[in-house]
Amino acid sequence: QKEVEQDPGPLSVPEGAIVSLNCTYSNSAFQYFMWYRQYSRKGPELLMYTYSSGNKEDGRFTAQVDKSSKYISLFIRDSQPSDSATYLCAMIGGGFKTIFGAGTRLFVKA
Amino acid sequence: DVKVTQSSRYLVKRTGEKVFLECVQDMDHENMFWYRQDPGLGLRLIYFSYDVKMKEKGDIPEGYSVSREKKERFSLILESASTNQTSMYLCASSLVMNTEAFFGQGTRLTVV
């Protein structure tokens, strides 16, 4: 079993839709949770960073962490075609290593 | 603007060749990383370095080596390239281990 599971998609939604992206994990030692966005032929870039449980909001993006369920989510409101990318969840535990999910490909249709 | 620069966007090499992938960061970061990215498998850590001349194996170091002679530069070496090393290679750097990693644009390597 992978430490981090993420549905690869693709996920296709119409412009303006609310998007929900999710990851589950098995290691209860994870403390730091991140979402990276990767456009085609580019490297990933950090979108959201949260520590422990709770919600964090940044503009149209909300990151949610539920440590009791070992489940994290990224919500995108009023999705735009420019949001079309691959979204990778990432987690760090007691050690130094960042564990990445496989990434979900998102397409937002105009 | 922070920057991690990888020397090549695309490379095609022959089986058995020695391949060098170069990465330079301009942020004075202590930590540098090499990942490979394959469909369905996500990013897998090959090697990382937390200081000049220091290196640690990641999850999949076999067939690879690294060199860090200067703080800003981290090189990945494929000693004898094989077709199963065809992949996207991503270099990253970070100031502290549990914080944001900044990635380069990636090198798509094809071994034929």
Question: How would you describe what is shown here?
Answer:
- The complex is a heterodimer of chains A (110) and B (112).
- In chain A, strands 2, 4, 5, 9, 10 and 11 form a 6-stranded mixed β-sheet that branches.
- In chain A, β7 and β8 form a beta hairpin.
- The model of chain A has no long low-confidence stretch (mean pLDDT 93).
- Chain A has no helices and 11 strands.
- With 110 residues, chain A is an all-beta fold.
- In chain B, β5 and β6 form a beta hairpin.
- The termini of chain B are far apart.
- With 112 residues, chain B is mainly beta.
- In chain B, the strands form 2 sheets. In chain B, strands 2, 4, 5, 6, 9, 10 and 11 form a 7-stranded mixed β-sheet that branches. Chain B has a 4-stranded antiparallel β-sheet with strand order 1-3-8-7, with no helix packed on it.
- The radius of gyration of chain B is 13 Å and the shape is globular.
- The mean pLDDT of chain B is 94.
- Helices cover 0% and strands 54% of the residues of chain B.
- In chain B, 36% of the residues are buried.
- At the A-B interface, β5 of A face β5 and β10 of B.
Topology:
The complex is a heterodimer of chains A (110) and B (112).
Chain A: E1 4-6, E2 11-14, E3 19-25, E4 32-38, E5 45-51, E6 54-58, E7 61-66, E8 71-76, E9 85-92, E10 98-100, E11 104-109
Parallel strand pairs in A: 2-11
Antiparallel strand pairs in A: 1-3, 3-8, 4-5, 4-9, 6-7, 7-8, 9-10, 9-11
Chain B: E1 4-6, E2 10-13, E3 19-25, E4 31-38, E5 42-49, E6 56-57, E7 64-70, E8 73-78, E9 87-94, E10 102-103, E11 107-111
Parallel strand pairs in B: 2-11
Antiparallel strand pairs in B: 1-3, 3-8, 4-5, 4-9, 5-6, 7-8, 9-10, 9-11
